[in-house]
Amino acid sequence: MQNKLPISDLSQATADWLTQTLETNGHLLRGTVRRVVRDLWMQSNYSMLARLQASYSNDAACAGGTAPPTSLLLKFNRPGHTVRSSASFEPREVEFYGKVAPAMKHPPSPRCYGAIHDPRSGGFNLLLENLSNTHTYAGKALPPTIPACEQIVACLARFHAAWWNDARLGTQIGGPFREERRSKYATTLTLQCGKFVAGLGDRISNSRREILRRLCEIYPRLLDRQNAGPLTITHGDLHAQNFLLSKGQADCRIIDWETWEIAPATDDLAFMMAMNWYAERRQRLERALLSRYHGALLAAGVTHYSWDTFWDDYRFSVVKQLCTPVYHWVNGALPAVWWSNLERILTAYEDLNCGELVDQIAG
Q1: Looking at the domain assignment, is residue 335 inside a domain?
Q2: Is the pTM of this model over 0.70?
């Protein structure tokens, strides 16, 4: 989207840099940025997030005669942590804001003013609108309230419906799921899961060891079933902190799109509820929220998708989410994260009789 390399240090986010970025991407038609106040806000293992407060020359204007953005967020890679890739591949979040969001009339993401990735250095920049004055996190340490959950599933249903079995998936948007990827995933999971279970020792029962063993056994067939469709674009990491709820009448927004992929819509729902909610809450709210989501999906134009099919797809996605604590462990997440996730997803698997589905796949 831009004609220069990404900046790698917050001090490089100058008035001249912001002027050029906004001009290059068609967001500043005339005038210049006069001053930028920078504030490093958050850091993760791989990226940094800074708040930028901009002031402009008196003649500054954007498309349609609107005022230029004064409150922005700049996301860039943490020094020493870059996204290495070939020239044909972009970091997922840059790809989302460069290809997916612009293809939607009403994307659920913050507005993007610039997205750039340098495949040689692995550096990237995302320049986004700062929604902190109009939106708030759906939840941090605590799960979202019921009204918040209802907003979330409605937002999610609209997004999923917009990409439901879209002909561009796997061609113009995202890549095809090839046989070699399927085999690699299955082999890797079997190896990692074996080490994971061995390391747990007597902290996990024999019956739950058997659940994970059977997951590895049927995993290639599970992927085949899911890839047969229906498919859409999923977020991939839908915990409460990735939802921003409006303080007024605006729609909710979803952030942190670095894990988006082409997958069944129910993968997002299973991650959000079966993976992240403790049993009592999930058992109390799960069916009602899934029913609300399914209704919103149909209202948004999805057809030939019955409740029974949807319910089975959700349960299959719960089976698939058994992989997630293993991957968290492999990637060095703290036990406080993956151990709780493991307990929650195994409990959901048992509650929802997902072993029945595994038997079906196993034949």
Answers
A1: yes
A2: yes
